[in-house]
Amino acid sequence: MLETRAKFVRETWVKRCNKWIFVSDETNASFPTISFGTKKGRKHLTTKTMRAFDYIYEHHINDADWFLKADDDTYVIMENLRYLFA
User: Where in the sequence is the signal peptide annotated (predicted)?
Assistant: First the structure.
């Protein structure tokens, strides 16, 4: 998945983010991600999301005014989102 769908996210709208973090079940030396050791599957998405927000709170809470959680099938127009939050 990292070399397919997540790659396109990184090459498109994520470029316009000030900072970004990819969370994944997989590790890949050529694609930096954070893994929390959660089990794969839709059944465990809530746990993975909670751990990701815990990580952001512990390590990056002062790095931004707001945070966005998006999946690899999401496309965000960052300029519009920034305008909305301004």
Answer: none
The pair phi, psi for residue 18, each rounded to 5°, is -70, -35
Give the tens place of pLDDT for each residue, 31-54.
888 888 888 888 989 999 999 999
Residue 74: name the closest of 3, 13, 16, 2 by CA.
Answer: 13
Mean pLDDT, rounded, of the chain: 90
For residues 43 and 70, give the distance between their C-alpha atoms in angstroms, rounded to a whole number. Answer: 17
DSSP 3-state of 25: coil
Backbone angles phi, psi at 11, to 5 degrees: -85, -10
Instruction: Measure the CA–CA gap between 55 and 1, rounded to whole angstroms.
Output: 22
